[in-house]
Design the sequence.
């Protein structure tokens, strides 16, 4: 009997040791995800921004701007996340103001068409999507909203420094988001460099952050069940100081959504999605939370 007990004990030790080895192997195996950038910038700041969050994750980056459409269509089927990056102006004809081209800078129609393809897929599949600066603006235009063609003419000049350089200003969070660790009442200094911004907010989007002059700085899809991460920010988190800013929770939230999407390819039946705002002709003013009036003038001491 003692011999049987001894053999049984040795067997259990071997089994537990084997399980421990297997678990350690799983922990050491890097996770792999595919993220599509609408256009990669020369400094690769978007890549560094996400990669620095968790260096153990292997990311397959796709630069949509230089990828043939036939190949991009294939890549989108395997994509776990999409980032609409910053860049040049959107053609104002897309929001019914073609005459405003005179107040625009450089316009890239190829990019407008490309990002339409990316958002078609994101909204049909529920793939996590982050829009930055121009990316936020294109989300709004795609969904039926419009833009200020030149902010100094309509709101203020706080969003871009002299000679087109970056600047900083605070933004104020007016709505808590479950997808990212940002709470109502948060404020943060952010890196800003743009001369356009949201004028009429698209019907299926919600605003959750504002600049001191009232410009919308953060948006999300109003259907957070089917689109848990369809979020845009007007500032540049990839260029903001991660210490004490809202950059880190945005990056963390996006990467978490991407990892949750890995291996879970959602139903792409377009009848179940809400691809665009149903009424793109709305002209009513944007309504801001009770804490804000005509302009966002929050002084948090």
Sequence:
């Amino acid at each position: 009997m003692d011999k049987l007990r001894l053999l049984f004990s040795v067997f259990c030790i071997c089994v537990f040791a084997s399980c421990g080895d297997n678990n350690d192997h799983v922990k050491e195996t890097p996770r792999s995800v595919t993220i599509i950038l609408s256009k990669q910038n020369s400094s690769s700041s978007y890549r560094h921004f996400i990669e620095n969050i968790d260096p153990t994750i292997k990311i397959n980056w796709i630069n949509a701007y230089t990828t043939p459409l036939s190949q991009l269509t294939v890549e989108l089927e395997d994509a776990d996340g999409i980032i609409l990056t910053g860049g040049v102006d959107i053609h104002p004809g897309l929001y019914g103001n073609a005459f405003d081209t005179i107040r625009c800078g450089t316009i890239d129609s190829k990019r407008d068409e490309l990002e339409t393809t990316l958002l078609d897929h994101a909204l049909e599949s529920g793939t996590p999507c982050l829009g930055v600066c121009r990316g936020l603006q294109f989300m709004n235009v795609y969904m039926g909203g419009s833009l200020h063609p030149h902010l100094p003419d309509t709101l203020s000049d706080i969003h871009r420094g002299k000679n087109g350089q970056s600047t900083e200003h605070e933004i104020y969070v007016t709505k808590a988001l479950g997808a990212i660790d940002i709470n109502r009442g948060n404020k943060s200094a952010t890196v800003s460099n743009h001369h356009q911004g949201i004028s009429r907010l698209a019907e299926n989007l919600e605003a959750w952050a504002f600049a001191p002059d009232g410009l919308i700085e953060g948006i999300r899809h109003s259907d957070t069940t089917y689109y848990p991460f369809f979020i845009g920010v007007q500032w540049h988190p990839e260029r903001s100081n991660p210490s004490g800013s809202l950059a880190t929770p945005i990056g963390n939230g996006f990467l978490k959504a991407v990892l949750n999407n890995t291996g879970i390819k959602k139903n792409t039946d377009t009848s179940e999605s809400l691809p665009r705002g149903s009424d793109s002709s709305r002209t009513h003013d944007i309504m801001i939370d009770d804490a804000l009036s005509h302009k966002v003038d929050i002084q948090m001491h």
